[in-house]
Every structure is written in C-alpha cells, then in structure tokens.
Design goal:
Blueprint: E1 11-16, E2 21-25, H1 26-32, H2 34-42, E3 47-50, H3 55-67, H4 77-86, H5 90-105
Helix pairs in contact: 1-2, 4-5
Length: 120
C-alpha cells in the first residue's frame, strides 16, 4: 500500500476499442500479470491499449484482476480466454480451461453446442 504513490505504481490509463479510457492501478495489474509488469517497469508505458478486445470484456478483465474472480460465459469465452493468455494471467487462464472442460462435458454428443468457439 505504501507504494501506491510511487511513480512506478501510480495510476495508468487503459484505452479501449471505442477510444474511451479507464484509469487503473499498475500495482494491481502487475501483481496479476508479468506482461503488465514488463510494460510498466521496462517500457515505462502509462497508457495501455486494449483495442483488440471488446470494451465489455476488457472492463470485465480489469475488474477480475481487482477482485480475483472471473465468470466465464460461453458467449464471452473466446475473448476472455484470448485476453487472459495475451496478458499471461495464469489464474484466469486456469479458470478458462476449467470453464472449457465444463462446456465440453455439458455438450451434446454431436458437439454442435461447441459452435461458440468459432463464432466471433
């Protein structure tokens, strides 16, 4: 907590696909992701673009980093899985793997339920 006012752990800006912004704490983001650690400590980036993901999923991702909880729905599985892998958030990748396993176990025998993996 003492480091929150330090230059390294000060607030950063997250930029979304729709060109809107959200402030975040680099300490919390870095604690969850070695990619964020690299972006902040090595590259000294103050603005992170999350333009490869829908704003809804990007905000959900950030909220999950703060809370430590993620809910993976079929409709958002691909994007949540993609963003958690992109930023190397190990615990979230594990949650996506668990969710995928549950989705597979609940599928019909012809696996038509798995279409959500291929829809964008």
């Amino acid at each position: 907590v003492a480091n929150l006012h330090d230059e390294f752990h000060g607030n950063v800006t997250m930029e979304f696909k729709d060109s809107t912004f959200m402030r975040a704490c680099s300490l919390i983001l870095s604690w969850n992701s070695e990619v964020f650690t690299y972006l902040f400590s090595e590259l000294r980036q103050g603005t992170i673009e999350l333009k490869d993901f829908s704003k809804e999923v990007a905000v959900m991702f950030l909220e999950s980093l703060y809370s430590g909880v993620v809910t993976v729905e079929k409709s958002q599985f691909r994007e949540i899985n993609k963003i958690s892998h992109a930023f190397k958030v190990k615990w979230m990748v594990e949650k996506c793997t668990d969710a995928f396993t549950q989705f597979c176990e609940s599928c019909s025998h012809d696996y038509t339920d798995m279409v959500f993996l291929f829809n964008e």
